[in-house]
Amino acid sequence: MFMFTIIFLFIIFILYKLMLIVPMREVHVIERLGKFRTVLQPGFHFLVPFVDRVAYRHDTREEVLDVPPQSCISKDNTQLEVDGLVYLKVMDGKLASYGIENYRKAAVNLAQTTMRSEIGKLTLSQTFSERDSLNESIVREIDKASDPWGIKVLRYEIKNITPSHHVIHTLEKQMEAERRKRAEITLANAEKAAMINMSQGERQEAINLSEGQKQKRINEAIGTGQEISIIANAKAEGMAMICKALTVNGGNDAMNMLLKEQFIGQVGKILAESEVSVVPAEMAKLEGFFEGMEQVTHAVSGAQSTNAKGVR
Fold this sequence. Notes:
It is a single-pass membrane protein. It is found in: Membrane. Belongs to the band 7/mec-2 family. Residues 17-175 form the Band domain. InterPro entries: Band7/mec-2_domain, Band_7, Band_7/SPFH_dom_sf, STML2-like_C, Stomatin_HflK_fam. The protein is built from eight helices and eight strands, in the order αβββββββααααβααα. The chain is α+β, with helices and mostly antiparallel strands. The strands form three sheets. The chain has a three-stranded antiparallel beta sheet. A hairpin with a 2-residue loop joins β2 (26-32) and β3 (35-40). The chain is rod-shaped.
């Protein structure tokens, strides 16, 4: 019974060594007597017991490797700490087993060195604004170097870019100054727009006032012209009526009488308003005549008085 049990266990052990089931997500590297034999794909396989063995097992799914933070110097001599993620996949199980001792560690170290080299080509501002191009450059360089390792680097993503505390403090001051500058520019633009609007308003007001003055003068000129036209028509009608009246008997006498009345009225008005006596030549002669008559009258009166005294 004991021997039967030993034989049964030995048969089970032989069958265990004879059969191999490779899971769907893996590939197995088989060595025969310490030498590479083949790479088994997922499925059921037979092995030679005690001769073949599974030397390496590789996961064929996409792997994510964390790249630890590291210190980098940018093109403008700014110290940064950068970390990221590497996405890779095993493409050749043989090369992944014999081409490199540890492809995961090698991929992480290569990502760090490549990232340090690529960041050294960019300034601080470019590292923030050109992440996509930076990721593509790192993937291209890692994939080129890792091709003999039987792996494929699918992509690289930068997680954090952290400047030093001194740089952060300087950036905060710079951002504050930039915000202050933008605020001053905004205020200046607002004042400029306000002045432009005010000047345009004043200009429009001046235009409106000038248009109003122009229209006023036009209206006054039109009114004056109409007034002159009406007065001229009235005078023309008056002159026509006067001419018509002169043709009637006694018209000349009436005209002379009217002219004399107007003459006397105007002379009286001038004498009343003027401080200096202004008398026409004919009236000056008339005034001299009356003064001479007054002297003659006084002389005659004096002679008569003297004769009367002698008679007494």
